[in-house]
Design a protein that fits this description.
It contains 16 helices and 16 strands. It has about 450 residues and is of the alpha+beta class.
Amino acid sequence: MAKSKRNATDVIDLYAKQDKIYPRQVHGLFARLRILSVLALLGFYYLAPWFTWNEKQAILLDLPARQFHLFGVTFWPQDFIYLTLLLVICAVGLFLFTAIAGRLWCGYACPQTVWTETFMWIEQFVEGDRNKRMRLDKKQWGAEKILRKTVKHALWISFALFTGYTFVGYFTPIRELWDGILTLSLGPWEWFWIGLYSLATYGNAGHLREQVCLHMCPYARFQSAMFDPDTLIISYDEQRGENRGRRKKSSDYKSQGLGDCIDCKQCVHVCPTGIDIRDGLQYECIACAACVDVCENVMSQMGYPKGLIKYTTEHSELGKPTKFLRARTLLYTTLFVSLISIFIYLVASRTPLDVNVIRDRNNLFTETFSGDIENTYQLKVLNMSQTSNEYTLSLSGVEGASIIGKTRFSLSAGEVLTLPLRVRAPRDKLTRRSNDIFFKINQVGLQQQRHTSKAKFLGPAR
């Protein structure tokens, strides 16, 4: 007996293989909204690099040249503050929409959701509806299964490669990129990023799917900090739906002690993450509302009132009024609108000119034969616009001060000019040893575009 116990082996599975989810296609209001969202977002992603603006690619993030072209406006590394502000706006916007509408981002606009939806459309087109896909996967490998799987993965890979190609097209002119692919003349980094982004798209949208949402995305973990009883969620009306049970359409189910839920499990079959919304709100729910659409279809067929599964709030479920205007949403809205206004103002008032004034530190100052004081400077001027412009240079800050050197010059788009010059000032006009002066650069014919740089003018001690 003891020997048999010593020889007995207990196998404990530390990891259970994830069951494949076969979401059923659903029709309804929210399904149409998801389709429109996917078409709008993917349409912009794939078409935007092909748009031109002033005979240049409208959106081009030219990393080697350190120039970022966005619809006629060129940003440089010096403009990093704009990117920082834009990211803050996106974060606050996400907080606002989450506080009001829950996981609206996850269900309709997240790249993982958008591309997964597209890959599932391809899968349904090739392999058929939910039942056909399940039967196909259970079949032994044969001609039909090999053909359908090959076609599906070929379409997936083609779409993923086009996605990777488009992604790199935002950093390398997309028309030149296509010519480089045809002639196999792309650089190693371009090949690398096309391959990596294509592989990521194929893997995440084609194979991982809901696993990215469940195990890789942190948003579901910290979203509860932005939820409150007035946040929209998708909920099952347990009081109305229980007890569950199948019945005939014409039966008096109330007398049988049954609720409106006929236990058809359609809400589970359409869920892209495979949860049962009737078990309550779960972090796996991405608020895509597929269960709402299918349940409303079932309720219509049975002749029952709609809304067994619906968008609602915790307060609404308790019979309390929902408050959309509350401290949290008002704070987020105020901050969101303020940041957008600041961003628009900064971009609108931005001068596409960068000036760096470098004072000669080897010589504090020089006294001329006439008794005037001179300081030597070097100006580095960068034209950050997409056109060639002519500029004038002037000076203020010290009465009687003048520039000895070039005060009118031209710069091509993206050109940097190093301008050596001297500033001369009457000695009796210097009120202190260190005086503030201001170099002002105006664009000829456009006086409102002015750039002012502050510098120090040194003189003898008084």
